[in-house]
Amino acid sequence: MSDKQKQLPKVPQAEQQPSRRKFLAAATTGAVGVAAAGFPMIAKAQAGPTSMRWQSTWPAKDIFHEYALDFAKKVNDMSGGDLKIDVLPAGAVVPAFGLLEAVSKGTLDGGHGVLGYHYGKQNALALWSTGPMFGMDANMMLAWHKYGGGKELLTKLYASIGGNVESFLYGPMATQPLGWFKKPITKTEDFKGLKFRTNGLAIDMFTAMGAAVNALPGGEIVPAMDRGLLDGAEFNNATSDRILGFPDVSKVCMLQSFHQSAETFEIMFNKPKYDALPGKLKAIIAGAVEASSADMSWKSVDRYSKDYVELQTKDKVKFYKTPDAILQTQLKLWDEIVAKKSAENALFKEIVASQRAFAQRAVKWEQDTMVNRRLAVNHFFSGKNAKAAPAKKKG
């Protein structure tokens, strides 16, 4: 043994065999020598958030675009940032009526609109958005869609036209006005030769009533009326109509119609993009759809009722109820439209049969069960009760 070797200090026995505790501590902190000991550190790859670029079919100022933003925010918040949806307004990437094609091709990852805007691709798509819906309101139509076979039929319908999308319906809309006109509409004959805007199967209905129909997206309606290209038009509700400027070009609005009495919104994803999402995010999307549906229906009651008052008090708009004779004409014409389209389109016929069967039992249940709220309205807000205010509590 050399002199140098003799000078090396003797390592205590306790330190020659490291304890299990010390070894695990060293492994946890990445101490030198761990890898050499045969225990390499394995780094777990973290997937980044998924971003989606969407477009709505609505102008940025419309409450409908606000609904699209509301849905995106719910998804973004519920996913904790794992999925981020950015929503652009109509025309930012494609025209409003080009949404289905853009989402199907992957030009956009998704979008917010209505099925009636795809009418030109397959007229049966408009059965979810236009017509009297056999007496169902929009919420009942959503019940048919989810529990009565509607969703499966829509999937089948999209497949028939090569629509590469995953579709969700939500957001029950209130009965839409007959429209805005230069003077009150008192009879069906008033539509003869009238230059009128509508969309979906309502095009067939108003054409049969004698109108010259032009289908325009929401943001183009009022400018067209202002330039005299339209004599009348319908869009949707008091808030949207006021925001879009209808009272600037017309002071007459006819309430109640069967042309769109049960419409809903559509949330649409590019199918490959949607299919690639993990199950957790798909579950979040499904939950956000239903949460947004309820929220939209509540928000619409608040906002539409306020703007209904403002249209009358500030904008000096006169509202008139559509005469029953016109409503009866719409129902008669709808029967003719459905019969003609069903004879030409097997899927159209299948969807109509499904809606009718569901409505026959659901509407009877609803009509037999629900109390006539007009009695309560007349009691509390007519005559002397209309002027009475709740007594204020003292103190």
3D architecture notes:
47% of the residues lie in helices and 12% in strands. With 395 residues, it is of the alpha/beta class. The protein has 2 domains: 50-174 and 263-303, D-Maltodextrin-Binding Protein, domain 2, CATH 3.40.190; 179-258 and 318-368, D-Maltodextrin-Binding Protein, domain 2, CATH 3.40.190.170. The chain has a 6-stranded mixed beta sheet, with helices on one face. Residues 1-46 and 391-395 have low confidence and may be disordered. Helix 4 packs antiparallel against helix 13 (279-313), helix 8 crosses helix 14 (324-344) and helix 14 (324-344) runs antiparallel to helix 15 (346-369).
Summary tags:
single chain, 395 residues, alpha/beta, D-Maltodextrin-Binding Protein, domain 2, 2 domains, 6-stranded mixed β-sheet, 5-stranded mixed β-sheet, disordered N terminus, disordered C terminus
Task: Sum this structure up briefly.
By secondary structure, the chain is α/β, with parallel strands linked by helices. The protein has helices at residues 3-7, 13-16, 20-28, 63-78, 99-105, 138-147, 150-160, 202-208, 218-226, 238-244, 246-249, 271-275, 279-313, 324-344, 346-369, 373-381, 384-387; strands spanning 50-56, 83-88, 110-113, 165-170, 179-181, 195-197, 212-214, 232-233, 252-255, 265-270, 318-321.
